Amino acid sequence: MLYLDNSATTPLLPEVKEAMLPYLLEEFGNPSSKYYSYAINAKQAVEIARENVAELLGSKPEEIIFTSGSTETNNMVLKGVADRHQSKGKHIVTSKTEHPAILDVCKYLEEKGFEITYLDVDSYGRVSYDDVQNALRDDTILVTIMWGNNELGSLNPIKEISTLCLEKGIFFHTDATQVIGKISFSLDDYPGITFLSCSAHKFHGPKGTGVAFIRKDEYGISTPLTPLFHGGGQEQDLRSGTLAVHNIVGMGKAAEIASSSLNDHIAKLEHLESVLKDLLLSKFGSVITFNNDDHNKIPGILSVQFKGLNNEILVKKLSPVMAVSTGSACSSSKPSHVLAAIGLSLDEVRNTIRFSLSHLISVKDLDIIKSL
Fold this sequence. Notes:
Layout lengths: L1 E2 L10 H11 L12 H21 L6 E4 L2 H16 L5 E5 L4 H12 L3 E5 L9 H7 L4 E5 L13 H11 L2 E5 L19 E5 L10 E5 L30 H16 L1 H23 L3 E3 L10 E6 L4 H8 L3 E2 L13 H5 L4 H4 L2 E5 L16
């Protein structure tokens, strides 16, 4: 079966598995313990992983906080900023196409008395810089806009928005889950990004681990927020809990590979997307319509309408030979709020499936499209 649902999760690289195994078996120490070799080795392994992730993101290692993934990080940042800084204001700006791990937190915060502005998007799912600018108020404490959309692949103007927030003294968070390992950037070039979320399993690392990037100022002090978890004070008192060393090591190895091969992986994804698009057009012609833009997008994501075909039925029929999805794996039981936000009718939403590629796929693998 050809796996084309890499936006949901990616297969673990063999090199990542091999890096993890010693920390599941022989090197099982708790990195928060002291003096003996098991603990020292575990701590060293965590710090090497932290350096590898920082290298991939273009940040300082001490700005990397390990979490269980983007969902936790999103909760950590939004709830932490809201709690810590509500005396300055209770207004937050986001978009209508964010992941449920943002939108559901915003709904929770509304119940706690915060006011959320949900920005409209264009026909490809991008927010407008002008709309962000116009939404800002004196009591705005946080703007949270995803870097790249998980269903359409569209990239938001993160540089411009984060710079605006920096100028206004407003915290800016971006859910970068889908762009890691697929676009080239360095957080050193984005001083307006205060917080960033990502998950290892989206770039061939293990499930159950991710990162909160939390920017430090020129004095080495982290941007203050109330921790989501209280306890033993691990991760600079920002995320308590015994570290999952094996998963962290896996994320570090996946980050190392992604960083060293980034340009090759991007070029491969762009080529695979072009081939897949041509194959779909050749096979299905006027039966299909592409929802996504051709430019300024994450390479390897295609959102395709199959006119007159229910997407749930289509996904089931394809399942013996191909793994695709109707949209986000985190909201698969509901019609896509992302596609609704870009103006598609309910029928058009229900005719749409998402293909998402990996650099591990070969061009020859895509020939399966011809046999459908």
